[in-house]
Amino acid sequence: MNSAAPFVPETHQLSVLAEAAKGCEGCPLYRDATQTVFGSGRPSARVMLIGEQPGDREDRAGAPFVGPAGRVLDKALAAAEIDRDELYLTNAVKHFKFTTNERGKRRIHKTPSRTEVEACRPWIIAELETVAPEVVVLLGATAAKSMLGNDFRVSRHRGEVLHVTGLVPDADPALIATIHPSAVLRGPSETRDEAFDGLVADLRTAYATTRTVRSDGSAGSGTFMPAANPVRR
Question: What does the angle CA 30 – CA 51 – CA 201 come to, to the nearest 5 degrees?
Answer without folding.
Answer: 170
